[in-house]
Amino acid sequence: MNRKLNTKVARFLGGVILCLALQSCAGALIGAGVDTAIEVVKVPFKLAGSVVDLVKPGDEEDES
After folding, report:
1. DSSP 1
2. Within a domain: residue 13?
3. What whole-number distance in Å separates Cα of residue 37 and Cα of residue 22?
4. Fewer beta carbons under 10 A from the terminal one: N or C of the chain?
5. Number of structural domains in the chain
6. In a domain, 46, yes or no
7. The predicted structure's pLDDT at residue 41
8. How far apart are CA 7 and CA 13, in angstroms?
9. Strand, coil or helix: what is 56?
10. pLDDT tens series, the chain, 64 aa
11. Is residue 50 included in any domain, yes or no?
12. To the nearest 10°, the Cα dihedral for 54, 57, 59, 64?
């Protein structure tokens, strides 16, 4: 009877450890996905800013 209890406890603790390990991996994957999504959203604004800088007449000093 004692051996059955030890096996159940070992399986439970193994399952808990596995869940915690997978949770940290999932957090890293979600974080990477969010970072990528943010960068994808930033690109059109950077592109629009570059186009405006090209079209807008000079704030820079003219070379003489």
Report:
1. -
2. no
3. 22
4. C
5. 1
6. yes
7. 86
8. 10
9. coil
10. 577 778 888 999 999 988 888 887 778 888 888 888 888 888 888 888 887 777 776 655 555 5
11. yes
12. 100
